[in-house]
Hints:
Elements lengths: L3 E7 L3 E8 L2 E8 L5 H11 L7 E6 L2 H7 L6 E6 L5 H4 L24 E4 L2 E2 L5 E3 L3 H14 L3 E4 L9 H9 L5 E4 H4 L5 H28 L4 E5 L4 E4 H4 L9 H15 L5 E7 L4 E7 L4 E2 L2 E3 L2 E3 L3 E2 L1 E4 L5 E5 L5 E7 L18 H8 L16 H15 L3 H23 L11 E5 L7 H7 L4 E4 L6 H8 L1 E13 L5 H21 L8 E10 L6 E4 L3 H16 L7 E11 L20 E3 L8 E5 L8 E3 L2 E4 L4 E4 L3 E5 L5 E5 L1
Parallel strand pairs: 1-4, 4-11, 5-6, 5-9, 9-10, 12-24, 13-22, 22-23, 29-31
Antiparallel strand pairs: 1-2, 2-3, 7-8, 11-12, 13-14, 14-19, 15-18, 16-17, 20-21, 23-34, 24-27, 25-26, 25-27, 28-29, 30-33, 31-32, 33-34
Amino acid sequence: xxxxxLGVDTGGTFTDFVLFDAAGLRxxxxxxxxxxxxxxxxxxxxxxxxxxxxxxxxxxxxxATNAALEGKGVRTLYIGNRGLKDLLTIGRQAxxxxxxxxxxxxxxxxxxxxxxxxxxxxxxxxxxxxxxxxADLQILVEAVSxxxxxAVAINLLYAYLDDCFEREIExxxxxxxxxxxxxxxxxxxxxxxxxxxxxxNGWVGPLVEGYIGxxxxxxxxxxxxxxxxxxxxxxxxxxxxxxVRMLLSGPAGGLVGARFVAAASGHERLLSFDMGxxxxxxxxxxxxxxxxxxxxxxxxxxxxPMVDMHTIxxxxxxxxxxxxxxxxxxGPESAGAAPGPACYGAGGERPTVxxxxxxxxxxxxxxxxxxxxxxxxxxxxxxxxxxxxAMGLSPEQAAEGIVRIANEHMARALxxxxxxxxxxxxxxxxxxxxxxxxxxxxxxxxxxxxTQAMVPVQAGVLSALGMLASRPxxxxxxxxxxxxxxxxxxxxxxxxxxxxxxxxxxxxAEGVARAQVERRDSLDLRYRxxxxxxxxxxxxxxxxxxxxxxxxxxxFGHRMEAPVELVNLRVGLQGPSPQVALKAVPAAxxxxxxxxxxxxxxxxxVPCYERAELLAGREIVGPALVxxxxxxxxxxxxxxxxxxxxxxxxxxxx
Length: 654
């Protein structure tokens, strides 16, 4: 019987653990092992003294993300229709540098020698143009035998209408080859986007499959799930063939966690930033996390549903340096987990944001990771001091410059996700999490003119907590082109039901009862002749056209007389919410004890509080430092903090 629930977030620097059982929540951190992420997970579980047979593990994996960003996927063969084998190379003919007359050539996703073409071509209405013959299949079998790929990506035209030809090709391929079919990965219109998703799924799929296999072997008896980019969990054995849906696995957990803890304080309109050791992820939440199908990983579009967020290379481990013009720069290069910032004492010598915060006194050398890891202040001062000497500044002045530049990078990212989309951030609450987020939250709120912020309970491991708060689910879609006025409501309902049933069967296989599944149907609509669509909830055929006109008016400022066209059917399925709850914090009866420390830029000594001793209702006036097991929060001058009923720190300007 499963008695314990474990959320795990594998980051670039740390691997975070949140355990929930009858005793409440318990947290843990270990340094990540990027070469084999499962090693850090198994190490953490062993250090926590947990029996795998009693665990239900939900974790966010960076295996697919790292492989894609670093170009370390497996040897993958691409199969398209005759005349279309170079589809992924041609792409959309979009130029990254519009005015550069001599742009740097971009390597194609799949080398020409690994691109094959074959028969089995359908027309846009599903009728047959060219059959797939036995000779075609034999040629493919021989090519696979000669080229020896580890994965094969099959992307035939209009396979979302009829996948029989893709299935025939899959059936003749060797069992040892990982097969990715477009009709299974992304059965939607848009041959280039569908092809990229199918190739990415094959390119990183064997790596994910191997990682999940090793993790499950190391956790005998445990039920293991993986967070998808959409913020929903999927059983590990099913995730292996859906690697492309795990590219934002960890960050999606952060958004689920942010929504979960903020709801306890009655906050729903959130601007979030997750600052870890390597990167910062920002997002806007007005209720449930928004999903997008226009995400990217590196230079490639990823059209599968994923949480709508913006990521930059700014984290606690971001390295500061002087560029060729002598200007101070921060990131995107990171010190990572090995060697890490100089203050980790593991051989790092270049100054980072974490080193700068330590030099400024905003981090305590003896309180990092709850005292389990002592920071080396002398090493941090040497690293920052070398940069300061080159700039003609003191180490403290250089450290302030490093922090200010890192803050500006993050503020710019927050503006991208809000202001540049027409959203005024001043009506939102800025929620910071990640190991480094609390040190920068006040400065970022000020930069955006925001007066409310929050450092959630368990902020340093909030993505791992979000794994526990996630629900099993699926996001399903299928293209069904046609003018609304020419379609019947009965037809649309039947096709939505058929689409939902395929997802229901997958959830039933995970042990979710049919009666526990929530379902949301929606349609992608556009005016005939348009390329882009708007997604609207399905509420019956009679209302859809007018709803689309109204939404188009709000989004683009006008409506048209053109007929409305259906493009895609979508079904979202979610299983029950997990039985995870935040423990109430007792009300403060007396002042918590605190000690004073020196912080650069503040004349008087600054009080330093242990967060575990701050009870509900306690108020703190900045400047102040709040330390905890996995993170530190800097309450800047001009800000005050109140502890709510579950331990969230609610910040407001004085």
